[in-house]
Write a structure and sequence with these properties.
single chain, 4% strand, mainly alpha, transmembrane, 67% helix, O-antigen ligase domain-containing protein, transmembrane helix, 381 residues
Length: 381
């Protein structure tokens, strides 16, 4: 009982890190909170380590782990060296370095402890959704559009955490009344993050879930569900999401850049990458963009390209590819790990999701903690 209580406490502490933002000035992602509060992250990582790690050194590495560890070791060195020479950049990569350290040296605990942590995460997200509902009702939301952020302070981070919990409910947790009741709450939370990619990720999770149930059912639900969503679901979407969808459609079909600024800026980021590749080819391939010690933008892949170069980033992408392409999807636990990893990596195209604490911990846990073989995990719920 004490062990379970500590894991639940660790999950609650880890995912409630940014509630202090409500007590300081905050404007669209910019906080006036004192810098010393960042040290709370160190405590969160320590509790996480005590929850899901064994205190013994690693003895073996899978190929995907070796590739990703190689990337993080050299990228950390790149970051620290370039930080001494350049002034333009973001220090958010320190979050990734902090979260990477335990995975570099320690073994992840057995599967039952890992799944207990995800069970705790599920309940934390449910309670945070209820809290966000109350906060929005009182008009105290951190973001102007009223986006749900839980204790993570960021709509995209909370949206992806909700998607990980959604895949846990669908693919691993046993069917129970609590699962049935909480499923629509999680879906509601994802929609209320106002994050377009989180919404798309939710649809991808359901598509794969129905595909696993029955191929015939998948085609039927896809057809009728698509008609239903396009006919009725549109009216229930938040206006902010509708605006983004219209802007994306206009950009693709007509090349119109006058819509959503977030859509336009992502288009510009890709244009800038190819511009740097043509003008500073060798520098971009081996070192990243000139004059930046860390190029933090709304794309994990472009952030790494611009910060560490295409060559070093290839190690990271190679590890992700090996994980997604060659991980087995037999059994409920493996399906959960694979689907959660896929939707998190899906966000790499539109968000530097693993720069935002504590999402690097979730990404690395899904990759390093994925079962080596089917272990017959007992479901929770």
């Amino acid at each position: 009982m004490a062990t379970k209580a500590f894991v639940f406490f660790a999950a609650a502490f880890l995912f409630s890190n940014y509630y202090y933002l409500y007590f300081y000035g905050f404007e669209q992602g910019v906080s006036l909170a004192p810098g010393y509060l960042s040290f709370v992250k160190v405590a969160g990582v320590c509790f996480f380590v005590m929850s899901v790690f064994e205190f013994r050194l690693k003895t073996q590495l899978r190929l995907k782990e070796l590739l990703i560890l190689t990337f993080f070791v050299f990228s950390a060195a790149f970051f620290l060296i370039k930080r001494a020479y350049f002034e333009v950049g973001s220090d958010l990569y320190l979050n990734s370095i902090l979260c990477f350290l335990p995975f570099a040296f320690l073994e992840v605990k057995n599967s039952s402890r890992r799944m207990l942590f995800f069970e705790a995460t599920f309940w934390v997200v449910i309670f945070q959704t209820i809290i966000d509902f109350y906060i929005n009702y009182r008009g105290l939301s951190l973001w102007d559009n009223g986006a749900y952020v839980g204790g993570l302070g960021n709509p995209s981070s909370f949206g992806m955490l909700c998607n990980i919990v959604l895949s846990y409910l669908l693919f691993f947790r046993k069917r129970s009344w609590s699962t049935i009741i909480c499923l629509p709450i999680i879906m509601f939370a994802i929609v209320e993050t106002k994050s377009l990619f989180s919404m798309v990720a939710m649809l991808l999770i359901f598509c794969y879930f129905f595909w696993c149930l029955s191929k015939i059912a998948w085609f039927s639900i896809t057809i009728f569900g698509g008609v239903g969503v396009s006919t009725f679901g549109w009216w229930f979407l938040p206006s902010h999401l509708k605006y983004k969808i219209f802007s994306l459609y206009s950009l693709i079909s007509e090349g119109d850049l006058s819509g959503s600024q977030s859509i336009f800026l992502r288009f510009e980021l890709h244009r800038k990458f190819f511009e740097n590749l043509s003008e500073h080819f060798l520098y971009t391939v081996f070192f990243g963009y000139p004059d930046y010690y860390y190029y933090g933008v709304d794309s994990q892949i472009l952030t790494y390209f611009g910060s560490f170069g295409v060559l070093l980033t290839a190690f990271f992408l190679g590890g992700v590819f090996v994980h997604l392409a060659f991980s087995s999807r037999d059994g409920s636990a493996r399906k959960f790990y694979w689907v959660s990893s896929f939707v998190l990596c899906f966000m790499f195209f539109s968000n530097r999701i693993i720069d935002y604490y504590p999402m690097p911990l979730m990404f690395l846990l899904l990759v390093f903690g994925s079962p080596r073989r089917e272990q017959g995990d007992a479901s929770y719920g």
